[in-house]
Automatic annotation (TrEMBL):
Keywords: Coiled coil. Residues 107-237 form a coiled coil. One of its GO terms (cellular component) is cell envelope. InterPro entries: ABC_heterocyst_DevB, UPF0194_transport. It comes from Roseimaritima ulvae. The keyword Lyase does not apply. It comes from the Bacteria. Its main location: other. This is Multidrug resistance protein MdtN. PANTHER family: EFFLUX SYSTEM COMPONENT YKNX-RELATED, RND EFFLUX PUMP MEMBRANE FUSION PROTEIN BARREL-SANDWICH DOMAIN-CONTAINING PROTEIN.
Length: 383
């Protein structure tokens, strides 16, 4: 039967580990809680800042040039904690890129100003060409109108042709034929030809003026398109945008080379000293010590007995007296306990869930001096 009892006990991996105490009321955590062994759960916990301990890192391959804080010093978010050797070089690269960007912008602005001026000239030329075409059309219409140049030339041609016809008719008349000589007919024919030539020249001149205006409009439109293309291609060819991206990248590198405090808090540990190379390990660690908690590993068989708001007492040989708190949260995640039991005979084949104890503000300063200390915790069982 004894062997059977032992085997049965071994098949209960989630049973609470049994620690033997001569007098459970002598357990400091229970005493501080003012409870008996049946009125509380005993477990192991660890003191931590509520928001954890934040490590300040630097990329490998650099070197710590200076450190401007020490352990225990309070800092504000954004405060300079130290400086890497690469910071000066990266700041120099950033300054060069910024200067290049200014020069590129100035050059681009000048080129754009020239291109814009050419564009305005092209627009003016186009307007002038269109005005020239309009004036040519109006002049042609006026010339064709009654009393206009072309109308008068038409009349001159008609009059000369009529006179020539009359003279030819008269030259065939025996009575008047002697008055019309061949020389007179030739002169009148010459007058007709001259009138026709003048009319043709006037019409050709009008057409030429109109065609010249049309060509001027086309040329001005081409100049305008060329000016617009020059502006767009000039914008596309500007190195300003690529320099902006380069500046952003260099700024990120400069920021990465600065050791700045990510939070308001206290420097709790310094792991490197000036002159040492960076390896990707923390240079220092910062925490907000105004809000302290205790993470407790409670056996899963007892986890359901823990209630939010339950009183808890925390003790350790390193703590003068005890720390008081209340259960803030109970985790749903179950796993193997990570904190070793102070009892070397305690069982380890069980599962636990995390319970977070909010330490009272009055006790937080004492807890802040013992970050990551493993402690004994007694949690009251609420009725």
């Amino acid at each position: 039967m004894g062997a059977l009892a032992i085997a049965s006990a071994g098949c209960q991996p989630d049973a609470a580990p049994v620690d033997r105490f001569e007098d459970v009321t002598a357990v400091p955590a229970l005493v501080a809680l003012g409870a008996s062994g049946d009125e509380a759960i005993l477990a192991q916990g660890q003191l931590e800042p509520s928001n954890g301990v934040i490590s300040v890192l630097a990329p490998p391959g650099d070197r710590l040039e200076s450190l401007e804080v020490s352990a225990g010093q309070k800092v504000q978010a954004g405060d300079t904690l130290g400086r890497l050797v690469s910071q000066a070089a990266r700041e120099g690269e950033l300054a060069v890129a910024v200067a290049q960007r200014k020069e590129a912008q100035a050059t681009a602005d000048a080129e754009q100003a020239v291109a814009q001026a050419k564009l305005e000239v092209a627009r003016t030329q186009l307007e002038q060409a269109r005005l020239q075409v309009q004036q040519a059309k109006e002049k042609f219409e006026l010339a064709q109108a009654s009393g206009g140049t072309l109308d008068l030339l038409d009349q001159q041609v008609a009059l000369a042709e009529s006179k020539l016809a009359q003279m030819r008719t008269a030259s065939n008349d025996p009575a008047a034929g002697r008055l019309i000589t061949s020389s007179t007919l030739d002169q009148q024919q010459l007058a007709v030809d001259q009138a026709r030539s003048d009319l043709a020249a006037a019409r050709a001149e009008a057409r030429a003026a109109s065609q010249a205006g049309d060509l001027a409009v086309k040329a001005a439109e081409q100049e305008l398109r060329a000016a617009e293309v020059a502006i767009e291609s000039g914008k596309a060819a500007m190195p300003v945008e690529s320099l902006d991206e380069q500046i952003k990248l260099l700024q990120l590198q400069v920021d990465a080379s600065k050791l700045l405090s990510p939070i308001d808090g206290t420097v709790v540990a310094v792991h490197m000293h000036p002159g040492q190379p960076t390896t990707g390990q923390p240079i220092l660690q910062i925490a907000d010590l105004s809000d302290m908690i205790c993470r407790v590993e409670v056996n899963v068989s007892q986890l359901s007995k823990v209630k939010t708001g339950a009183r808890a007492s925390i003790t350790s040989a390193a703590i003068d007296g005890s720390l008081q708190g209340t259960v803030r949260s109970i985790s749903r995640l179950i796993g193997s306990p990570q904190l070793p039991s102070p009892n070397p005979m305690a069982r380890v084949d069980y599962r636990s869930g995390e319970v977070v104890i909010q330490i009272e503000p009055d006790d937080a300063p004492r807890a802040a001096d013992l970050i990551h200390l493993q402690v004994d915790v007694a949690i009251a069982l609420e009725d």
